[in-house]
């Protein structure tokens, strides 16, 4: 009996150890699988990154090729324009010769150059005249002058006409000298520069009026 119990206990213990070994082996195998999954994800990310870089490289190469073609086309157009320009210049040089095939004389050449210089000077003068002068009708100018004169007459009548208490500085100072406690002569007799100043102003106004009439007549 004791021997059988001992044998049964030993067999049960051996079975439990085998089950534990199987469990430990399964745990070890699951732990070994985890790094493989991480490695696959990393490889997938690397593959996606490489594909993206390749697409960007292809796109960049296409853009560079397109830019080279555009520059080549522009260079071709420029060369074509230069070629046409050279042909036009040759035609102008050929037209500079006479119908008999002889070159122009020096006198005729100087005459043409002088005419070109005169034309250029006239163009410059016309451009300056356009900037500094403005063409108007004589009727409009006369109407404008008439309106200005009417406005100045109106202002003068309102400021110095009858019914106003305004007076000139000369009259005011003369009246003050006559009615003051110390009576003296009129201001034009006391201040000798008074008459010369008024005379100079009158001359300036006269010259300005003559100049305006000359401009209107022209």
List keywords for this structure.
0% strand; NOL7_C; RNA binding; Nucleolar protein 7-like; coiled coil; 6 helices
How would you describe what is shown here?
The longest helix is centred in the first third of the chain and has 94 residues, at 2-95. The protein has helices spanning 2-95, 106-132, 138-160, 169-179, 187-190, 192-217. The protein is elongated. It has 218 residues and is mainly α. The model is unreliable at 1-6 (pLDDT under 50). The chain has a domain at 1-95. Residues 94-125 are annotated as: Disordered. It comes from Acipenser oxyrinchus oxyrinchus. GO terms for molecular function: RNA binding.
CA distance, first residue to last residue = 156 Å
Shape: elongated
| Proportion of beta-strand residues | under 5%
Q: How would a textbook summarize the main sheet?
A: none
* Average pLDDT, all residues: 69
- Series of secondary-structure elements, N-terminal to C-terminal: HHHHHH
The total of helices stands at 6
Which stretches of 5+ consecutive residues score pLDDT under 50? 1-6
Regarding quaternary structure, what we see is: single chain
Organism: Acipenser oxyrinchus oxyrinchus
Pfam families: NUC129
Keywords: Coiled coil
Protein name: Nucleolar protein 7-like
Task: Reconstruct the topology from this structure.
Elements: H1 2-95, H2 106-132, H3 138-160, H4 169-179, H5 187-190, H6 192-217
């Amino acid at each position: 009996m004791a021997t059988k119990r001992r044998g049964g206990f030993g067999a049960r213990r051996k079975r439990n150890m085998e089950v534990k070994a199987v469990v430990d082996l399964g745990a070890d195998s699951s732990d070994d699988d985890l790094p493989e999954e991480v490695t696959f994800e990393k490889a997938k990310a690397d593959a996606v990154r490489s594909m993206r870089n390749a697409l960007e490289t292809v796109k960049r190469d296409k853009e560079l090729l397109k830019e080279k073609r555009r520059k080549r086309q522009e260079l071709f157009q420029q060369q074509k324009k230069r070629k046409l320009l050279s042909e036009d210049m040759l035609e102008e040089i050929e037209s500079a010769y006479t119908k008999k095939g002889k070159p122009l004389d020096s006198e005729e050449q100087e005459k043409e150059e002088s005419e070109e210089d005169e034309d250029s000077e006239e163009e410059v003068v016309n451009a300056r005249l356009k900037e500094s002068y403005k063409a108007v009708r004589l009727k409009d100018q006369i109407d404008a002058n008439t309106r200005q004169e009417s406005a100045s007459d109106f202002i003068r009548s309102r400021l110095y006409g009858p019914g106003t208490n305004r007076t000139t500085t000369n009259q005011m100072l003369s009246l003050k000298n006559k009615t003051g406690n110390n009576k003296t002569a009129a201001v034009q007799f006391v201040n000798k520069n008074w008459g010369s100043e008024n005379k100079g102003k009158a001359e300036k106004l006269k010259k300005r009026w003559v100049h305006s009439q000359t401009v209107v007549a022209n």
